[in-house]
Design a protein that fits this description.
There is one protein chain. It contains no helices and 38 strands. It is mainly β. The protein folds into two domains: 382 residues, YVTN repeat-like/Quinoprotein amine dehydrogenase (Methylamine Dehydrogenase, Chain H); 73 residues, Immunoglobulins (Immunoglobulin-like, Sandwich). The strands form ten sheets. It has a four-stranded antiparallel β-sheet with strand order 1-28-27-26, with no helix packed on it. A four-stranded antiparallel β-sheet has the order 2-3-4-5, with no helix packed on it. A four-stranded antiparallel β-sheet has the order 6-7-8-9, with no helix packed on it. A hairpin with a 5-residue loop joins strand 2 and strand 3.
Amino acid sequence: MQKFKRLFAISASCLFILAPAIAAPAQTLTVLYSFSGGGDGAGPQAPLVQATDGNFYGSADEGTNNYGTIFRISSGGAFTVLHTFELTDGAHPEAALIQAANGNFYGTAPQGGSNGYGTLFELTLSGTFTALHNFCSQSNCRDGATPQTALVQAANQRLFGTTGAGGTNGYGTLFRANPNGTPTILYNFCSQSGCADGLDPYALIQAADGSFYGTTVQGGSSANCTGGCGTVFRITLGGTLTTLHSFDLTDGGNPYELIQAIDGNFYGTTLAGGTSEACVDGCGTVFKITPGGTLTTLHSFDLTDGKYPSGALVQATDGSFYGTTLEGGDSGSSCLYATCGTIFKITPAGRLTTLYDFCSLYQCYDGANPVGGLIQSTDGNFYGTAETGGSAETGDCSPSCGTVFRLSVGLGPFVETQTTSGRVGAHVNILGTSLTGATGVTFNGTSATFTVVSPSLITTTVPAGATTGTVQVVTPGGTLSSNVPFRVIP
């Protein structure tokens, strides 16, 4: 588990024992695929992404060459390997892919490549793979090293990302990728005394105000953690960084992912810290932080309801947030080193409900140790991966190689715009399910011309007179609304 070797060296596997099945009303977990550890890969850590063809795309940490794979899987479980890493083009991918406006996927691998410090790559829907940049190509890795998080396609269509190491100071960078993939460094972390600006940057998103917001896993102004407990930062397109919050362990430590919610605030998780004494240095937290930097701890995990929330939260169409914990929960001693992880729901006010405890089935057939978090598909269900567990019979993993799963909680279908903002006349993809026969598309009530490309894709442009608000699609099965408002840029 490359993602957490720096901090915890966590390793969790399931023992072959009988555990009682846990079935909670109104939610059902279905395993779509169990990895075998062969040509299909093993140990998936990255979250999935739903593409314009309606399928899901993701990566596995291991594979035939032990360097990882990229795969496609349908909502029904049809599985295809699109690329097997060869070390020279990257190794051990752990970040989500993104589908850019040109329809291709872009991603990073934290290891491998010609210099051994990771790559930035492109992948077409049909599986054509191109390594665009080999990190640490400049002396002293001034172009960055070890990219570990998903890229961001900004409103200006350029790709931005972070590296966990390298740069002028050796502690990570924020970069803009040029069209050929070569990065332009916008910020070198640990540029301030004592690394008060953070080190080892991880999450990166572009917010509604146009600036980037993100986290550093370590650094900051608190002395409560060796090397600092991590930060939340804001950085402009020009590279001016402002530290919004330095964690002090009591309010969390080692933040990874961050999202912006419909209310305009940011929500995230910390791998450690919080007020619980059930774990050394805390079991992790869920937090809210305003754009101005006011932080509120919404929940401190206490092991029984989870431990080490590692993946990004997703705000679902019911307004609540859904996420996973790597360990903890109520699966008893079903895993070798710790309990096997959970899926949880938390309201914006901080009320947490455990929806599922992994390794609830015999021999962890339902999976264990979900690392990457969840996505909500346009069919209303949640999809994710578990790093271990599954039903594949193989000697290549000890004892099992991971799963892809679906969680149904009774939420209905919706549409998703790609992107979520644009000017009048801008091209917009609308993703959904059962879109064939659609008769109308509106942007906050203003009608738009459109083309139904497939049952999962409509293309349109932002109509004149449109204002910020919900996008709706009228289909034979009913009217579908967008999961987030579309922001019309003046």
